[in-house]
Every structure is written in C-alpha cells, then in structure tokens.
Amino acid sequence: KAPYFYFFQNFWCPSISLQGVHNFQKYFQAKDNDVFVASFPKSGTTWLKALTFAIINCQHFESLVNHPLLTSNPHELVPFLEFSLVGDVDEKIVKLSHMTEPRNFATHLPFPSLPTSIKESNIRIIYICRNPFDTFVSGWHFFSIFMSESSHKITIEEAFERFCNGVIGFGPWWSHVLGYWKESITRPNKVLFLKYEDLKEDISFHVKRIADFLGCPFIEEEKGMMESIIKLCSFDKMKDLEVNKFGHHLKIIENKHFFRKGEIGDWVNHFSPSMIEKLSKIIEEKLSGSGLSFKTQSSS
Ligand code: A3P
After folding, report:
1. Start and end of every Sulfotransferase domain (predicted)?
2. Which ligand 1 atom sits nearest the alpha carbon of residue 138?
3. How far, in Å, from the CA of 47 to the mean position of ligand 1?
4. Measuring from each residue's beta carbon to the nearest atom of ligand 1, which residues come in under 6 Å?
5. Phi/psi at 175 (nearest 5 deg)?
6. How many whole angstroms separate alpha carbon 28 and alpha carbon 85?
7. Residue 162, CB half-sphere, CA atoms under 13 Å: how many?
8. Ligand 1 test: best mutation among 43, 46, 146, 244, most atoms within 8 Å of CB?
9. How far is the CA of 234 from the centre of ligand 1 (A)?
C-alpha cells in the first residue's frame, strides 16, 4: 500500500502509525531513568539506537562476544513506541512496565506530541538529525522500495515537492528539528541534540558525549570498551551482520534497507541545480535566527 498521511497535531502522521501514536500518547507512563532516541526518519536513527543501547548496557556485555547487537537488529532492541503500541495495548503496556531498567525506547514523534509524562519528567532524550538534502535522498531510496510494489509510484521530483511542502511522515522536517533544537537549548540536561555529520566526523567525541549525558561516563580503563562499541556499531560492521543482511523488522521491512551508503553528501548524485536552489532557500528561511546549521559535504 502507498503510505498516506493525516495532518494531526501540526505534523503529517503516517496512517500506519495513527493508532500507535494515540496509544503511545494515552497509555505510556515514563519512568525517570528511561532513555529515548528521537529523530526525524532517515537521520541516522539505527546508528544512534545501536550506540545508545550498547552504552547503556556496557556493564552487562564486557567482552561484546555475546552482544545482542550481533544477533538482533537495533530496531528490535530499541523499539519505536508509535509503531509497537498497536494490537493488544493493555498487555504491551504491562510488559513495558516490567522491562529491565533503564528502558531504552525510540520515537519519531515531534517534541510537542510526545506523551506528557515524557515532556514533563526528567527522562533523557537523545535526538539525531541530519542535513535535509541527505535526509531527503535517504528517505527517497527507503520509501521507493515500498512504493515499487504499489500502484502509487512517484518520481523523485514529486517526492521532492512534497518534502519542500513539509508533506512527509512526521514532517515538516524543519518543525521537527527546530522543536527538539529549542528544547535542547532550554533543557540541555533533558535533550542532547546530535547531528549525523558530526558523528561521522568524530565518533569517539560523540560517544563520550552520549555516555556523559546518560550519566555513565567512560573512565580511563574503559577506553577499550568504548572503542569496541564504536566498531560494533559502525556502518560496515552492522551492515555485514547476518541479522541485518537477512532479517526483517516488524515483518514488513528487510533489515538490510536500514543500511544503504552511510555517507555525507550523496545528495549531489540526485539533486538538479533547481532542486538545490529551492531547498537551500526554504531551509535558510525556516532555520533563520535559530542558530542551527548543517554540513552538507564531508570535510575529508
Ligand atoms: P543512507 O540512506 O544515506 O545510506 P535511519 O536509521 O534514521 O533510518 O537512517 C538511515 C541512514 O543511516 C541511511 O543513510 C543508512 O545507511 C545510515 N546508517 C545506518 N546505520 C549506520 C551506521 N552504523 N553508521 C552510519 N550510518 C548508518
């Protein structure tokens, strides 16, 4: 089926997550030590989920030999609550309440639409975003896979128009990013705001930042552990694992589709000069005065 969206609470909610969003907002109760990974789709969520999960659980898996990330996709280990809270919600909510703490969840919901217990508590949120050019291209490839089987195929030009109009799952992109950006400025202990490009350029620095933010900093003796986590979560390692080559997520998505190129700047292979001009103007206008900017090319 082609994805379609409802404009709901000021964002474009994919029809497949409408029920899940409702249940998440209504029934989820945050615990103070919960850790959330939040993102706009195709911004590096899979990578951040793996890193966060590995950091939180590093005491339990010192050798990394039997690490859950070797046999489970990060989306299984760190579920999106707006996608999982469907079906028998009562049973699922009870299961969530008995999970080992700290619980680690993910969401694509914009900040204002998070359940009140998340917004008003001190739980920590790690947000990842990515320059809109690469985010669009990554999304285009990902969603083309689903659309290729539907009668609603759209061209990259049509998808681009929709992106520029904000009409994309959980979009507009700029509202999503700015919502978390503003929150990270006013409540830096609650929201850690990361950029995909920065992680690509200095992963050690950012893994330390994440661990510090979560209150479990790596001490000198744990440097080796930190390096192993970085390797385990790297694009090449994750992409090559059996579970990510052949497994499925939520029975509908092949895990391999979460690992494509993993680069900064692939958008140059897809954008025409007029597309560059159009999106640059929109982004400049939408982000103006926010202090937020993005790298669109790798510096190496
Ligand atoms: P590309 O499509 O540009 O390759 P998300 O996880 O939010 O769906 O984002 C997917 C993007 O992150 C894809 O980008 C994917 O290749 C990239 N990605 C996935 N795992 C990664 C990792 N371990 N390191 C770096 N990039 C990764």
Report:
1. 32-291
2. 2
3. 7
4. 39, 41-47, 134, 138, 141, 233-235, 238, 258-262, 266
5. -70, -40
6. 9
7. 19
8. 46
9. 10
Residue 50 CA: nearest ligand 1 atom is 23
What's the CA gap between 200 and 300, in Å, rounded? 10
Considering 108, 176, 206, 249, which one is annotated as catalytic? Answer: 108
- Alpha-carbon span 265 to 4, nearest angstrom: 28
Amino acid (one-letter) located at 192: L
- Tens digit of each residue's pLDDT, the chain (300 residues): 556 899 999 999 999 899 999 999 999 999 999 999 999 999 999 999 999 999 999 888 777 788 999 999 999 999 999 999 998 999 999 999 999 999 999 999 999 999 999 999 999 999 999 999 999 999 999 988 877 666 677 899 999 999 999 999 999 999 999 999 999 999 999 999 999 999 999 999 999 999 999 999 998 888 899 999 999 999 999 999 999 999 887 777 889 999 999 999 999 999 999 999 999 999 999 999 999 999 999 887
Residue nearest to atom 12 of ligand 1 (CA): 44
| Amino acid making up residue 19 | Q
Return d(Cα 125, Cα 122) in angstroms, integer: 9
